[in-house]
Each structure stands twice: as C-alpha cells, then as structure tokens.
Design goal:
single chain; mainly beta; Jelly Rolls; Cystine Knot Cytokines, subunit B; 2 domains; 5-stranded antiparallel beta sheet; 4 helices; about 10% helix; about 40% strand; elongated; disulfide bond; cytokine activity; signal
Length: about 290
C-alpha cells in the first residue's frame, strides 16, 4: 500500500529581522529545513522540484532575445565555519537552459529528486535516523547578464521566492508493519500486542477439542494518540486522516483505535456432533500485529 503526500518547502532566511539572506560571492544561499516531528527516512521521494522565478531586466541589449543562459544548482555541504560557508565543498545537482526569447518572465522547474532522496535518507552510522535536517542550495546563472535575465532569489513578496515541492510515498508492507508492532510490557502505553494464552480446558471445551490444548490468542491494547506519526506508521490511510483531524480538533471525540492489523489461522482437531474426528483450519484466530486503525 502506498500513501502519498506532498510537501511545499519554502526557503528559510538565514538571518532574522533583516530582509536579506546569507550571500556568497553575490549568490543567495537557499536553506530548506525538515520538520523534526515528521521523520523522512521511511519515505520514498516520487518527485522533487525546485521552482525559481525568472524575469527579464529592462536594461538588456537588443540582441538579448537571441541569447540563452544556463541556471546551475549546487548543493552546499555543511560547514563548521560560519565565516566560510563553502569550506565543505559544493556538488552540482542540475543545470537548466533558459531562452531569453521564449518568455520574459515566469517560473522554471529544476528536477532535484535524487538530491532530496539523499537528503531524506539516514546518514551512515546513525542507525536509521536522519541527521541532515537542512538542505542548502546555491543557484548560479551563466549568461544571465548578457541575456537580460534575473533570478528572483529573495524578495519581499513571498509568492516569488524559490520553493521546493516534494511528493513522497510511504510504503506500508508486511515487513514494515512487523517493525512497528510493539509487544506490551512494563512502561509501554502506546498501541501494542499483549500476549494471552487461552486454555480450552478452562473454557470447558476439552471434552470435544482434541488438539491443541490451548493457544496464544493475544490481543491489542494501548493508546493511539500522543507522539507524531508518519503516514507509514498507520495501517490504513483512514487512520492517518483521523489522527490529523484529532490533532486539529482536540475537543472532538474522534481518535484512531488500537486494533489487530494482522491475524493468522490455527489448526483445530475436534469431534463433531456425530463424533467424527475433524481437522479444520480456522481463519483469523491469532493476533500477530497491532496498529492504530
């Protein structure tokens, strides 16, 4: 099962209280930040596009309409020095040609899917946790001056600032479901699987059930509200929608419930009414996994 979501990430200003960003050699650095409450390392990036607003400058030469410029987008590695932000190096991510004669202004899309997937992935040695909370980009334009083209990187009008549009899919598989199934124990309050052995003798059924003598039926218990969850931590998208609704409407009596999300069959040997020995496979008898539904 795939759950899709779309993120629109606008650049965050490097400084507060000022109307400009950190510049390097005349270029504004674009910073994009992840939400720390929304883990991204379990998401697959379907598409990621950096949108840049390009406009013409009135002082361009008469031959500018026949010229082209090239936009280069670099990823700036994190640096330990605030005075030398490029000391960590840069990687070229994409290049896009802009024809000055095709249109004087408008939005241009730069494909950054591979770069964003790398950004979302956990850094090596961090046991599945993403430590790359910031993506820093530098946009350079070769030939923009002669072509009379300008890239809007920082403006007072928010609607023309660069932004990053990301579409993701969270794969909910059986393997992943098992990863998030928690066994109840001391101190566990969230949704979990509680072990429960049922004896057929205690139920008075041992006079017609031959085997087994009992089995672990198990059951689910615990809370579904609390810490934020990514879409892949819910069994169904319906449960994710209810959780988002509950967070925005705290007084509403709506909440996902902790319930079985996977049950397995069991074999039973017993006497029927005519005292025939029957072997039957009964479906959905054992709770294997629990989740918020």
């Amino acid at each position: 099962m795939f759950i899709s979501s779309r993120l629109l990430l606008r650049r965050a200003d490097k400084t507060s209280g000022r109307d400009d960003g950190l510049t390097v050699n005349g270029h504004v650095l674009l910073d994009f930040h992840q939400n720390p409450d929304r883990p991204t390392h379990r998401l697959r990036v379907v598409s990621a596009s950096l949108w840049l607003y390009v406009r013409s400058r009135g002082s361009s030469s008469p031959s500018a309409g026949n010229r082209t410029a090239t936009l280069y987008v670099f990823r700036v590695a994190e640096s330990n020095s605030s005075s030398a932000p490029l000391s960590g190096g840069m990687d070229l991510l994409a290049a896009l040609e802009v024809d000055a004669g095709s249109t004087s202004h408008g939005w241009r899309r730069v494909d950054l899917r591979a770069a964003v997937q790398h950004w979302f992935a956990p850094a090596s040695g961090h046991h599945g946790h993403n430590t790359r909370k910031k993506l820093t980009l530098l946009v350079d334009c070769v030939g923009c001056g002669p072509a009379g083209i300008q890239v809007a990187q920082f403006e007072r009008r928010q609607r023309r600032r660069p932004f990053l549009a990301v579409a993701t899919e969270a794969l909910v598989s059986r393997r992943r479901g098992r990863r998030f199934t928690i066994t109840c124990g001391e101190g566990v309050t969230q949704c979990c699987k509680q072990s429960l052995y049922v004896s057929f003798e205690d139920l008075g059924w041992d006079d017609w059930i031959i085997a087994p003598k009992g089995y672990f039926a198990n059951y689910c218990m615990g809370e579904c509200a609390g810490r934020p969850r990514t879409p892949d931590m819910f069994r169904y998208f319906h449960a994710h929608v209810l959780e988002e609704y509950r967070l925005r409407n705290p007084y509403a009596s709506v909440s996902p419930c902790c319930a079985p999300t996977k049950l397995s069959p069991m074999s039973l040997i017993y006497f029927d009414r005519d005292h025939n020995i029957i072997k039957s496979d009964l479906p959905k008898m054992i709770v294997e996994e629990c989740g918020c539904t």
